[in-house]
Here is the input.
Amino acid sequence: SAFERVIRSVLRELDGSGELVPVDSLGRSAGFQPYCLLLRRRCRSAFWRPRFECVDMSIRDILEPDAPEPDTEQAGPFHFHDAVDGQLRGSVELAALGQGRLAGEATVSGSSSASMHVSLLSVHPNTWMTLRQERRLRQPEPQVLQQLRGCGGDLYVVTKALQTQREVEVTRTQRQEGSGQFALPAAVCLEGKGQGHLSRKRTVTIPAGSVLAFRPALLTIGSDWDVLLFPDKRQKTFGLQPPASPHLTWLRAGAAQTSGAACTPHAHGDTAYAREHTQQHAHVGAHMGARAHKSTHESAHRGTLMGACTQEHNPHSREHTWARTRERTWQRARPSRAGWAGRRHRGLVRAAPQPGPPPAACPHYGHQIQSGQSFRPASAAPGAHRLALWWARPTLPLPSDE
Amino acid sequence: AAGSPAPSEAWSGLRAEVAEQARGLSVLAGELRGQLLGSLVHVLPEAEALRGLEESLEQGLRRGHVESQAGPVGAILECLTLSCRRLEEGLTEVVLYLLGALAALTETQHGLLARGLDAGALLAPLGLVGSVLEQSAPWRLRQPVSLPAQLLGSGWGPEAPAWALLQECGLELRSDAPHVSWEPEARGQLCALYACLVLLSGLSQA
Here is the structure.
């Protein structure tokens, strides 16, 4: 279609990396705005692209409270002008299906033109992080989510959208002229004996605000939600997290040995603490904030925190955001709630991305904060993780082969 | 999910994959095959009906049974259902594969395929599409691809069904010294078109 042709031309100029998925129909374009939810059907072949279907919902429809989505960032506008004019000449034999026959010399010319202003709207990754911290999944789960859960597909959310700024008219013209023996269909105008031309003009008007292409990100829904900008094939919206690396398996095993069955978030009193905070601050993000706050300080008090301790006991503070970021980061990698609890119990918290230097000592407990250390990821040198673990929890015996 | 196959596997891989699916359809008895074919002709131009059929089949596979429905969608479900109201899994997977390929095409292409299926005239477009895919493999470079004269038949121009089918994939076609300008972006759609043509023509031939 003319619409698809225009999108291809625009994407060729603006999206060299191919991260944007073209919208296949002008009629469905409105469902691909930033924050809109999409259902991706299971694709049974690697030879064609998977399909994204609009579910006519935005992320706000599954989160509480029912507040508008944050604003998006806008790049552009980009002015795009595409004019193609080509002429072919040759001997052709055209059969107008069931209508007649055209044979002889002919010229076929085709042209298309489109001039448009487009802009790229995108949701900044930090916006997703903030949204995650402040808004939780609606309870009870919306009915649509329950239906989608049984649908077998994955839910995606639009993080970028290429949008038209102004209304644009796209015209595509094809013209054929010829001479020779004709038995022409009625649509063809005769211009003297043995000559004629056939013209076809297609025009499509794309309204302002139409989405031409989008970038989807996987939405994961479990006890909490997340948006994965770079998901791997094993990650599913309603499915299990990918199997843990041997490194994490080792950590889990360690957690089981050292903390046993009592090492759960409930055993640490996080939930009760969080509830208290929620009541005190009456803030939508207090639950998550308080949970991170509690765990951070417990770990810090034991002197095992490998990063910054919170400076203030304010769940809305920036430091809390660090702590929550740490927790979130680990939650993404965690294989299970118990595994996370075990790591948290032993203070294996990765250093946060810090906007400034952490305090030298905790103002509440007075202990020294170890800073500048980071927990090695699974890809680190063999044995390094065990050393880091030993460092973090000195009571754990150093493996003999180290 | 739409991974890029290795160059050596591009064309042969697609051909093998589609042939495997076509073999799955060959288990259908003649009468059922005719029923499936007749119903598909009615469902093909209806985007909503295609989506509904896919939904019903997915649900049927998950739940282990399928609900009766009226109309052409119901008739297709009947073709794929065993006496215990369970879907025949192998056949259903093939039909879902076909529906997935159809979903990659435009509504214009659906209409053209329905007309071709009805008229039993899908072999000519199949030959052309296969030829274009074979010559342009591994499908990464823009290049002109010539169309063999023996596959064009008597008419080659904007009114020919194969022309429209290829043009809808985003390819530029020329009628003089017939050839196609290959566009890498058209890969997915053309592969899907090839799969549809193989499966539908296989059904109609038998």
